[in-house]
Amino acid sequence: MLHSHLTTLNAVSLILGTFKAQGMPSEALLAGSGICAADLGRADARITTHQEMRVCANAVALQQDIGLELGQRMHVSSYGMLGYALLTSATFGDALRLALCYPALLGTLFELSLVQEEERIWFTASDYREDPALAMFNVELCLVSLKVICDDLLGQPLPLLGARFEHDAPAYRAHYAEHFDCPLQFEATANAFAFDRRWLDQPLPLADAVTHQAMAERCRKQNTEFTGRQAWLGRIRQLLGSQLHAAPGLDGLALQMNCSARTLRRHLQNLGCSYQELLDELRFERAKQLLGEDALPIHRIAEQLGFSETASFRHAFVRWSGVAPSQFRP
């Protein structure tokens, strides 16, 4: 779902920093994302996962195994207040359970869980719903970064008992051993790594009850802000998505949201998109669904999406996807 989640600029900044060392200009990596240099200078800036994934796609096109490298660079301090709340937790288990409470602050695209299997705990990343073409990249980034967080919390490497990946072994499989010093399994039923359950009771070297309480409260407030914005964006998507055949326009949508057009425009800008961009994305999602079903003729699909002429729909679809609607059909 495009624009369905908000996140921080942590991963984008890391990507830019990684490629800057290779002499790659940031413009090439930010192309098509709608993120500008001014955004990078704002500590409180929020972007959508769609914007983040555009930058990631640009990075993967330049270096296929970049997910592993980026994950290795994402230390616990990269997560701001949440990172310090984790570091000051009493035990390793307390820190992991706190992290699971705030997936929005982690910026993860997965449902994270701790699954016990006899004496092993599997730190599992599941329910990925973003771009399938970036699934392997995101799994690599997620699991390697989680392992780095674990090491940082403990102040020493967490010994792993195994690692599983749902995808096939890539051509650069040998690089996995640099990040997962344990038996590896590909084409598995889950994405996860395992460690001895006794580590959950391990006291953390930087534990501090007073600091932890203060940071945990700030995390709670920040998470409320994140989820509130996501709920607001979800309401906009729901309203606009139900009216694609006769889009209400910015003024009409603002009226339905009980706010002024100016306020709606400002909120959308803060979310990294505009009314037209959101409308285009919803139309594109619906168009792909209808074309995949192969039941309606293209001129009927154009009508359902609010296009007055079939030619206008064809031009728009080519702009969105790079191919004509007839070529997209199975």
- The helix tally amounts to 16
Mean pLDDT: 89
The unreliable regions are none
Structural class call reads alpha+beta
CA gyration radius, whole angstroms: 22 Å
What oligomeric state best describes the polypeptide chains here? single chain
* Count of all domains: 2
Strand order of the largest sheet: 3-4-7-5-6
Strand content of the residues, in percent?
Answer: 5-15%
Total strand count, please?
A: 7
**Run of helices and strands:** EHHHEHHHHHEEHEEEHHHHHHH
Task: Name a few traits of the molecule.
330 residues; alpha+beta; H-NOX domain; Arc Repressor Mutant, subunit A; five-stranded mixed β-sheet; two-stranded antiparallel ribbon; 7 strands; 9% strand; globular
Your description of this structure?
There is one protein chain. With about 325 residues, the chain is an alpha+beta fold. It folds into 2 domains: about 5-215, H-NOX domain (Alpha-Beta Complex); about 245-330, Homeodomain-like (Arc Repressor Mutant, subunit A), CATH 1.10.10.60. It is about 55% helix and about 10% strand. The strands form 2 sheets. It has a 5-stranded mixed sheet with strand order 3-4-7-5-6. Strands 1-2 form a two-stranded antiparallel sheet. The chain starts with 5 loop residues before the first strand and ends with a helix.
